[in-house]
Write a structure and sequence with these properties.
Blueprint lengths: L7 H12 L3 E5 L3 H14 L3 E5 L1 H6 L3 H11 L4 E8 L2 H10 L4 E4 L6 H17 L3 E5 L23 H9 L4 E3 L21 H11 L4 E4 L7 H9 L4 E4 L1 H14 L5 H23 L6
Function: Catalyzes the aldol condensation of dihydroxyacetone phosphate (DHAP or glycerone-phosphate) with glyceraldehyde 3-phosphate (G3P) to form fructose 1,6-bisphosphate (FBP) in gluconeogenesis and the reverse reaction in glycolysis.
Enzyme class: lyase
InterPro entries: Aldolase_TIM (IPR013785), Class_II_FBP_aldolase (IPR050246), FBA_II (IPR000771)
Length: 288
């Protein structure tokens, strides 16, 4: 049985919890985005968690191998995480064939008891291979590119009982539901009172270092919201559009008029700078 003592994701997050800063867990959909994210981590001397969706593994099978090589060759702590893995057979295939550090075993589309039962079994199998496990307690509404849409399911806030049940399922990272949503909040970010910071703080106190706390649903966050979430215990900060929208906007404005090689290089520069900005906001710059 492999040990979790040397697990890269857990080492990165435990250091962040001790240092009271947040670490970006950033989605990449292609090699250019992956490269820009790693460049930012090296430039800012920041830890980083690279995230791939299961759909991306199927669409671009070689990207996971490129990410694993980036993890090994980096001079700062980087790990590879598979986000929102919702198919049990695919989870088993991932852990058996890819060099990943952690997997989000996302059974939140099942009712709670079945969610817990499936999570418990899969967590045990992952741990045998030294792979850390994240799970979602409660239900975070919405959908985004790469994951199933749960917008038609009732949102459930994480309760103290949920926290204990998922810890008993032997997970390593807990993603609570505190009013956060997958997808967009709008240009002003979450509405006043939408995110229950007191619930996040209470969850962090309850887990008391038994598991690490992850925050999903950060699209459109202003810096002050992100900072407040970190102050209340979130250490793994899942980011998708929050970083990638600058890349998307750059392509929209320049793809028709810019030669391809220059478009790629300038696009990576834009994304790298935005990632560096958020590393500064989250307090991880200079921590590697």
């Amino acid at each position: 049985m492999a040990s979790l003592q040397q697990n890269r994701t857990l080492q990165i997050l435990k250091a962040a919890a001790e240092g009271k800063y947040g670490v970006l867990a950033a989605i990449a959909y292609n090699i250019e985005q992956l490269t820009a994210l790693v460049r930012a981590a090296e430039s800012r001397r920041s830890p980083l968690i690279l995230q791939l969706f299961p759909s991306t593994l199927k669409q671009l099978p070689t990207l996971a191998h490129a990410a694993a090589e980036a993890v090994k060759s980096a001079t700062v702590p980087i790990s590879l995480h598979i986000d929102h893995a919702q198919d049990e057979a695919h989870i088993r295939e991932i852990m058996a064939t890819l060099c990943v550090d952690s997997i989000m075993v996302d059974m939140s589309h099942y009712e709670k008891e079945e969610n817990l039962a499936k999570t418990r079994v899969l967590a045990k199998e992952c741990h045998v291979r030294g792979v850390a496990v994240e799970a979602e307690s409660g239900r975070i509404n919405g959908g985004e590119e790469g994951i199933a849409d749960t917008g038609d399911l009732e949102a459930l806030f994480t309760t103290p009982e949920d926290v204990e049940d998922f810890i008993k399922a032997d997970i390593d990272i807990l993603a609570p539901s505190i009013g956060n949503v997958h997808g967009d909040y709008g240009p002003q970010g979450p509405a006043p009172g939408q995110l229950h910071f007191d619930r996040l703080e209470s969850i962090n106190k309850q887990v008391n270092n038994r598991v690490l706390v992850c925050l999903h649903g950060t699209n459109d966050f202003p810096p002050e919201i992100m900072t407040r979430c970190i102050e209340n215990g979130a250490v793994k900060l899942n980011v998708n559009k929050l970083l990638l929208e600058v890349w998307n906007e750059f392509l929209r404005q320049n793809a028709a008029t810019t030669p391809l090689v220059r478009l790629i290089e300038e696009g990576m520069d834009v994304l790298q700078k935005e990632t560096e900005r958020w590393m500064d906001i989250c307090g991880s710059s200079g921590k590697a």
